[in-house]
Structures are given as structure tokens and as C-alpha cells.
Task: inverse folding
């Protein structure tokens, strides 16, 4: 349990990665009460210096004893590091806020989107997990609709950017793009196939039934976050040649009918959502406009007339910020508040 | 009506465009019986020379009298030219095969995908229309499933390439990509928004109800082509930064249940379809692999468990070839056969 203090000792595991750096920016922007900052990374990044609140902080190597005296530890370094070091952090008395998926199946670990299910935090026993980025964004957008008219089914297709594979993903898109424009062969490392000028209909590992593990996870994550066990979900996840931000094309079916204008006002009144939807003026959310934004942007809201109570819309969010780093910091804020 | 001959006088309106050039390639590949070729284009392209069957042909300016002696005229120059010149071509005795959408509402004009509804050709009165590219590809993929288990509802989200806006679209993607990689501002002309490293959730003109005219058209086109008036369709069309080929993420609901393996064999046995679906070996259709291909590629076939009789899959096709030029030539072939 977190002890009440004026300021907290914060550790960031994966401090030199895309999400870790974004966390630092967000902690500064939101004036998070930090008394000391422990930046942790793998061996080869140790020694790097990173600015935070006008001071340079040295990145240290992640080791067993890294968490002594730490109040809250953000984990953004991948499955392996979370699995190995979170138990040690918790033993040291820290609350771990994890961005990996290794504790998602653990019923003792709440899966939290503070704008959606903040009360779930109360049940934690040292570990709180971020859902995957798609579940964070979809959960945020669907929550007010579910509360209003009852969600029955969600069909979603994603347009996910390369930044979910961190710097390596972004560099791969840039390198392949330059190579192709110069009529050279492309190298693939971060992704299984060429991503420049191509879409890859597969995110995660493929399972026996044809779904990927990420697609399968979304269904249970959404149900947990929305606290809606009966919601049925069908998702197709696609990687697109975009550097940052993800989009999702969504069709939902609800228990009772929601008129478009009502849907717009219900969404606009909910936390973490911006309705950006004026077709007549060619306004709808675009990935290029959404980098660095905190909210989930919703547009192209329209009736899905192919079913009794259907609604269709398009959401865009910054997968690094809203889909990951911001959610972790919001969990920490909610933890302090509670 | 087409008179039976050994070889035909063919006119191509829009001969210098992306689709027009593809038609010429396809006519040669398929050894289409051409006795004379009349290449037509706007004023500023007239005089260009294009090779066909080992001979150079001069592009002529499209005028009122261009169709004298023509047996079949392919129109691939846009709405305005089709509207103005197709009646003249028909008056001259030619059968017009149109790629624009201006005659789609005309009940006297059959909308034909030869692999799907070849008999509809019989009813023509001088004009036969190509459906839009998405309807051609989706119609091809859905036809065998509809015949087998009865299609009730289709939810689709598209990933459409810039080549649908012809050379201008492809040049815009290339120019914007280079500009962005050099930290320069981008210019937008062919599309309403930046397309490089961005997805645009709007294809066509936006209507009052929030759909675009292209999205709205797909529903009626699919119903016509599948000869299935009761099929319900919900589509979201998205432009992606890919040079050529389109992909569609599809969820369908059918009257009776179709097991995955059965779906695979039904699809594989149908004309115009290649099942390319081996998740274990990371095989699924990709836009980068599909340029220049004649078939609709179907992969990631899986059960959609969020509904009673649900199926989900991913299709990829060459929008210039299968989605347009090839379909026109196949209509002409079918016309000769009948």
C-alpha cells in the first residue's frame, strides 16, 4: 500500500525507451509530486543522462536492489523485465504500475483506466496493470455509451502505428521508406514484413484459432475495464505505415437506441474524450493531428443502419501517451488521491 | 448490341491514365481480339504515343465523332467524360463499358462483375457499368459464401491506396513522403489532408447522415452484384499511405453456420479468389505482394464468435487491375461469349 506523503520517490524502468521518456514529460507537465527519480534501464543504456525538472539524472542499470526506498515504480521495459523485477519492487515496498501484459491474467492485479474504472485500483496488492493501448482507448470511448444504453457487441478494426514497437519500429519505417524511394531493397527487423507503404494485418502472435494473442487479449481487457462481462468483441488489428498514433474503426450494437446527437453529447461530456466531428467542414480525427494529445478523439459518428441499435465511429489517440504513458501516470495520481 | 466478329474495334477513353494503361496491358496479356485500337484522351494528352501489340498508337483527342466504327468503348476518364460521351458512343453503335459511377442509378444499366453476376450483362442496352472497386472485390469474395450459407450482414473497413486517385494520388504520396523526411512542409492537392504517414477516414463526398457517397454506394452496389436485396451493409472507407492495392477487414453474419475449413474450401473453389491463409507460416495477403495480380486474395479467415454465425477475414486486391481495368476487360470478354 502507498503511504501518504507530500512527494514520492518514483522509479521508471525502461527510462530510455519511447514510453519511459513520455512518462517523464507527462510527470513534469502535470507537476507530479516527485521527491526523487530513479531512472532504470538495461546495461547498455546505463550512464545516459536525461533532463527532468531542470536537472540531469543519470540512468542506472536495473538490478535486484534498484527499488529500495521507491514508493511507485513505473514499468515500461517489456514482459521479461516486468516478470523478473516487479516482484522485487513490490517486496521492497513499492507499488508497481505495469505497462506489460504479464500480470493481466492474475485476478489479484487490477487492470485500470482511471477515466473508466478508477475504483478497481482499491483492490491492488502492490501491482496495478495498464491494459493494452487499444483497450485503454476503446474503453475510454465506450464507457459513457455503455453506461447510457448498454453495450452488447463491438466490431473493431485498428490502424496501429509503428511507435508501438518503440524507437526500433519508427526507425524501421523511416529506413524502409528511404530505401524504397531510392529503389533499394528493404531490411525487416522490427516487423515480420515490410511496413513502408504497406499494411500488415497481424499484431502479436498468431494463435491456433487464427486470432493473434493481442486480438484475443482485447476482448477480456475491454470486459474487465468496462466491468461488462457479457460484451462481445470481434477485433482485427492492423499495423499501418504511420509513425505515431492509432486509429480504430468501430461498429457497436447497444441494448437500446441512441440517436446520433445524443451519442455526441454523451461522448463530449465524458472524461478523456474529445468529440471532433464536423463532416461538413471536413473535420474528423487524423493520426497526424493527435500526437502529444491526452484525449481520445472521436469522429465520423453515424448510425449503423445494418442492425437495430447500431452506431459507427472512428477514434484516434496517441498510443504512446493516452495508450500507455499517460494512463500509467493517471493510475499513480488516482492512487495518491485514494 | 455487339455484332459477332473475329476481332473488334476497341476504344479506350482515358488511355493515358492509370486505369487506361492497365487495360491495354490486360488486353494484350489475355490476347483480346482487337482489330483496331482507338486511344482517346483529353486535349493535353493527345499526340502521345503508346505501345500496344508491338506497334505504336497515337493518342487522339476525345471528340464527338471519336466512336465511329467502334465496337466496344472502355470509359476510364471520370464522371464528366462518361456522362458526356457515352451517349454518343452508344449512338454510334458501340457498347460502352463504364468505370465511372454516373450510370449506377440507371436501372437500364447492368452493374456487372463477370465472376459474380455474368447473366446481368444480357439485359444491357448499350451501357454496362463496372461497380466501384470495393464492390467488385467484396462481391467476388462474398458471392460463394452467400450462395452457400446466405449472407445477412456485412461490416467492413477498408484500407484503400492512393492509386485510386490515379497518377496524381501516387505522386502526392511520393512528394509528401520526401518532403516530410526532409523536414519540409507538405502540399495537399489530390487529397484533402496529408496522406504521407497518415490515414484519412474519408473517401468520397460526405453526406448529411455522416456517410460518404462512396460508402453509401457500396451497399446498393453489393446488393445488385450479389442479387441479394436484403443484405445489410455497414462500411467505413479509409485512405492509407500505400501506393497500390486495397485491403478490407470484413466481418459477416450468415443465415446458417459455416465452419472455417468449409469457408476456406468454398472460397478456394470460387472463380477470381485465392485463399492465402496460413497463420502458422505468417502467410496472409499483403498489399505489397498483390500489385499486378488478377485475383482477390483472402486470408486471416476465422470465426467471429461475437455473433451466432459469424466469420471474419481480410481481403487484398489490386484496385487498378481487379478493382477496375480487369473487370472491364472481363465484361468485354463475357459480352463476346454471350
Result:
Amino acid at each position: 500500500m502507498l503511504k501518504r506523503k507530500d512527494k514520492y520517490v518514483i522509479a521508471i524502468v525502461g527510462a530510455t525507451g519511447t514510453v519511459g521518456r513520455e512518462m517523464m514529460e507527462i510527470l513534469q507537465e502535470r507537476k507530479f509530486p516527485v521527491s526523487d527519480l530513479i531512472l532504470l534501464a538495461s546495461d547498455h543504456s546505463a550512464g545516459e543522462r536525461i533532463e527532468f525538472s531542470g536537472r540531469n539524472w543519470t540512468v542506472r542499470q536495473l538490478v535486484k536492489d534498484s527499488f529500495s526506498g521507491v514508493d511507485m515504480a513505473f514499468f515500461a521495459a517489456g514482459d521479461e523485465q516486468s516478470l523478473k523485477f516487479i516482484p522485487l519492487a513490490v517486496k521492497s515496498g513499492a507499488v508497481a504500475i505495469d505497462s506489460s501484459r504479464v500480470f493481466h491474467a492474475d485476478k489479484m492485479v487490477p487492470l485500470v483506466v482511471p477515466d473508466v474504472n478508477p475504483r478497481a485500483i482499491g483492490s491492488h496488492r502492490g501491482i496495478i496493470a495498464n491494459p493494452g493501448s487499444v483497450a485503454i482507448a476503446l474503453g475510454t470511448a465506450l464507457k459513457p455509451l455503455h453506461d447510457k444504453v448498454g453495450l452488447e457487441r463491438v466490431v473493431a478494426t485498428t490502424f496501429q502505428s509503428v511507435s508501438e514497437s518503440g524507437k526500433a519500429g519508427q526507425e524501421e519505417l523511416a529506413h524502409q521508406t528511404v530505401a524504397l524511394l531510392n529503389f533499394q531493397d528493404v531490411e525487416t527487423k522490427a516487423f515480420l514484413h515490410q511496413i513502408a507503404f504497406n499494411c500488415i494485418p497481424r499484431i502479436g502472435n498468431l494463435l491456433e484459432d487464427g486470432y493473434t494473442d493481442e486480438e484475443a487479449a482485447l476482448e477480456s481487457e475491454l470486459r474487465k475495464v468496462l466491468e461488462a462481462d457479457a460484451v462481445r468483441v470481434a477485433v482485427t488489428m492492423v499495423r499501418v505505415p504511420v509513425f505515431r498514433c492509432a486509429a480504430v474503426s468501430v461498429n457497436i450494437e447497444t441494448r437500446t437506441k441512441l440517436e446520433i446527437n445524443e451519442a455526441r453529447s454523451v461522448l463530449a461530456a465524458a472524461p478523456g474524450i474529445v468529440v471532433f466531428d464536423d463532416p461538413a467542414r471536413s473535420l474528423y480525427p487524423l493520426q497526424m493531428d493527435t500526437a502529444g494529445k491526452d484525449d481520445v478523439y472521436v469522429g465520423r459518428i453515424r448510425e449503423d443502419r445494418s442492425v437495430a441499435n447500431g452506431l459507427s465511429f472512428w477514434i484516434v489517440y496517441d498510443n504512446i501517451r493516452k495508450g500507455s504513458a499517460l494512463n500509467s501516470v493517471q493510475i499513480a495520481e488516482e492512487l495518491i488521491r485514494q
